[in-house]
Amino acid sequence: MNPTSPFRPALEGALSHALAHLDHLEQQPVGARASLDTLRARLSRPLGDTGVPATQVIDELAADTAGGINGSAGGRFFGWVIGGALPAALAADWLTSAWDQNAATYACAPAVSVIEEICGTWLKQLLGLPRDASFALTSGCQMAHATALAAARNALLARRGWDVERDGLCGAPPIRILSGDQFHGSITRAARLLGLGTGAVIGLPVNQAGQLEPAALQQALVHSSGAPVIVLLQAGDLNIGAYDCFADLIPLAHRYGAWVHVDGAFGLWANASARYRHLLAGVAQADSWATDGHKWLNVPYDSGFAFIADADAQRRAMSFEASYVARNDQVREPKDWNPEWSRRGRGVAAYAAMRELGRDGIEAMIDRCCAAAHALVTGIAALPGVELVWKPQVNQGLLRFLDRTPGATQSDHDRWTDQVTNAVLAGGEALFTNTSWRGKRCMRVSVCNWQTGDADVARAVAAVAHVLRGA
């Protein structure tokens, strides 16, 4: 132990501030309280000519951001689809920063590279994916999609004699992406990043359960006239957690030579649960899959995972060699599979989370979140003036608040739904976010935090009831 270490005072200060934040999550408002003007006034200090002691920097950073941090680490945060951070995952992430390894190559980060190999093996086992699929650890599902679709672009164009990595896209056969019309915006962004263009993404109508129907997909495939096609399927869509019927759609897409990619940002984790695994029947037949670690695995931001059945296509799309890059053919070189060169060792936190929970703990966490989502949605729906729009089949549900003024219109209900959600946020007891679904404004309920329990659900329901009583 080195009591004179230049790191010790600042790190001990950071530990104290971090524990103060985490230990008081149950007592603090879930939403940020400080205004934009306040945060700018506090943080916009002049950059001095001389430096400031590290401990002072950390203490003032904690003070200046007070009230500007959402309680997304706690059990009463139900907005978007955001998990918390398990203790082992958070601690491992701190170690990752302290080690400061560049996880691009084995030479740069020997232990981190081995950890990444093991993470890929464990993740494929948990998610029910082919054991010989390749993988990448990315910043999130956005870049996981980009990685998987880059492999798809490579494979589809290689079948037509086109080397896209060498020759680019100018003059190449255009690729289309067919999907149900509830696809996430990260798919559109991936299409932009890869040069496919947003016009290549075609949303097909879905049924009442939010699923793409085989007839609609077949018709679109026929109209593609043999052009290269990626079929995007949903494993838990962003609004209602809908799952496409993989057992029917994947073989259909393959008959037309399409590449099938599965967006499983949170929903792919249902394969870790015996209770919900049936929703993913047939998903292992796909060509690529994407999911997040910072959602249902509950590791700190940022963490995403891409998996590709055709390892050669992924490697052709991602790998790069140069005389100044060390290479070890006895190990999996991370840079051969990942879109990023310089990056932190994201696998360390994922490794720690999976070790802390084990298979049984991950399954219990999935089941617990789904049960909490059901209790939360049905509990709020039982209140006067609330419409149950979608009861969760996993961890996502939708609610709508009805303006009970005589003659109220749909737009009045939309406005009132936004007002109620904002009032709950202002009360500090829970945080929900809203969405538009099938022409209606709805409060979107998402439960993705390992800490959410019965007491959190009860507090959130009571918070909504309090707002409605005061209306």
List keywords for this structure.
471 residues, alpha/beta, 7-stranded mixed β-sheet, 4-stranded antiparallel β-sheet, 14 helices, 12% strand, transferase, PyrdxlP-dep_Trfase_small
Helix and strand sequence = HHHHHEHHEHEHEHEEEHHEEHEEH
Number of helices: 14
- Taking pLDDT < 50 over at least 5 consecutive residues as the criterion, the unreliable ranges are none
The main pleated sheet reads as: 7 strands, mixed
Average pLDDT for all residues: 96
Structural class designation: alpha/beta
Proportion of helical residues? 40-55%
What integer value in Å does the Rg equal?
24 Å
Per the principal axes of the C-alpha atoms, what is the gross shape?
A: globular
Question: What oligomerization state is this entry in?
Answer: single chain
Intertermini distance = 60 Å
Taken as a percent bin, the fraction of beta residues is 5-15%
Number-wise, the strands total 11
GO molecular function: transaminase activity
Pfam family, one: Pyridoxal_deC
Cofactor: pyridoxal 5'-phosphate
Protein name: Aspartate aminotransferase family protein
Give a structural overview.
The chain has 471 residues and is α/β, with parallel strands linked by helices. The chain is built from 14 helices and eleven strands. It has helices at residues 8-23, 36-43, 54-64, 87-99, 110-127, 141-158, 164-167, 185-193, 214-223, 246-255, 311-318, 347-381, 410-427, 454-469; strands spanning 134-138, 176-180, 201-204, 229-234, 259-263, 288-292, 304-308, 386-390, 396-401, 433-437, 440-446. The chain has a seven-stranded mixed β-sheet with strand order 1-7-6-5-4-2-3, with helices on both faces. Strands 8-9-11-10 form a four-stranded antiparallel β-sheet. Strand 4, helix 10 (246-255) and strand 5 (259-263) form a beta-alpha-beta unit. Helix 6 (141-158) packs across helix 8. This is Aspartate aminotransferase family protein. Its cofactor is pyridoxal 5'-phosphate.
